[in-house]
Input
Amino acid sequence: MDGDVDGTPSAEDTTRELGRILRYWAGNLRHYDLKPGVGEAVYDSGHREVGRWTVTES
Output
């Protein structure tokens, strides 16, 4: 996942927001066919797009 949460006021807020984003998307992965090329935009708690995750081939 690539993301940008630089708009948070402190390092503690950044850590908390990133944890929330990762928990949310990890819980939803079961809804996706995890094949190369599949991905989705990632949003923060303010519903702003902050990044994207994509399945890639290794």
